[in-house]
């Protein structure tokens, strides 16, 4: 039940990622979506948090591989001396050379190309799935043979009540993380509008089924209170006389961790490349190998930093910071879906290098519009400011952007719809925050807590009702299937509900403050938006086609 509820929650988030990935197929994942829908400043914080998430997550996973490798080869002393963990009492540091070497090996694989890394990922995943199928089949046989003794407990089902089940769901939710990695490779997918949603949905469904089947078998073999928390699966088989099964399970654990390590390192170079493309990071991270089509500099930088952390630091103390980065990214993705459905950006920033193409497009558009109106253009060919759609009251000294805005001006009703939708989305976010904050803080008095929960719930419900009555933006049809109205915004509540420790928030706040300083003194000064030309999105494709550039 825990895995099922967590899987449903992850599916809601996966639907958001699938929709945005098919609408906006570009590298950067949650950073890219926030950049388009919310703005550069918020997108920078999301990208900065994702850098923390993937770096620490990859390092933590790497340090978990070496003990399992040692167990597989007969103990820690069986590993080569240069790979054995060493403890330095004076510095109180446990270095892990094996973890650092594994990170560098995985980084090398990722530099070979997306096809090669996908092949390696497929191999280790196949071994992992085989190990899980072994657990399900062999464990099912043992369960029917022994009578499923694990379920014969005096407390019955739900020994800790529904609250315990929900707490377990929050714990196992992060075992579903990984579909955001699929979204980050959007630029390397042949048909992103079809393949990305399909890949995300299939991978999540398979994971959910395997997790549920394994948990059904293991809990049925051994009562929950008698499980070894460190090695629950292998100890369950050992207690039923199958000690040799520990080797197969350990192989599965090693391949699962290697697969997770690859999934942690793979998306970060794409995010760094997307941030550098927007001018927020140095152009060093922009370099893409012509043969492998991989951002090599970003991949090497990610691998080197992750290997150093895996070698020196006990990153398990910082692992809670991964949760904050994940929750922040998922929340902004859910908000981005609402914005893209109801109030998508009506202007797109284009680089100043396209100024000539924009002027040429405007001259051609003006000429066509005047011919349709039966007019003979009286302006000289060198005059860049021609009347738009035959309107004589357009200022002679108007800019290209103003002419394009006049060309695609929306009606008053459309403007009102966008304003109402924008305020309603903010209402939903505020209501969700108040509701989850008050519900998860038990130190509030009952009166204050229930009052805040009621106020937050009322704001949330009112916002949902209003959004249901508002038509979605017509331009949503240009981006693919938009889905039903306002179902996925509940994901905001779900991800804000997770309680993060104060110490973790302090560490994350320090990291985010460092990011704010970098953005203030470097990112803003080198942003590609400084010299950008904002044009209505209806004309962007035509301008790019006329210039010969690519989106």
TrEMBL record:
Keyword Zinc: no
Membrane-spanning ranges: 94-114, 126-144, 164-186, 198-224, 244-266, 294-312, 318-340, 420-440, 446-470, 490-522
Subcellular location field: Membrane
Residue runs in coiled coils: none
Keywords: Membrane, Signal, Transmembrane, Transmembrane helix, Transport
UniProt-recorded Gene Ontology molecular function terms: amino acid transmembrane transporter activity
A GO CC annotation given for this chain: membrane
Membrane-topology annotation of the record: Multi-pass membrane protein
The keyword Signal is assigned to this record: yes
Signal peptide limits: 1-18
Residue span(s) of domain Cationic amino acid transporter C-terminal: 494-527
PANTHER family reported in the protein's UniProt record: CATIONIC AMINO ACID TRANSPORTER 4, INNER MEMBRANE TRANSPORTER YGJI-RELATED
Family: Belongs to the amino acid-polyamine-organocation (APC) superfamily. Cationic amino acid transporter (CAT) (TC 2.A.3.3) family.
Entry protein name: Cationic amino acid transporter C-terminal domain-containing protein
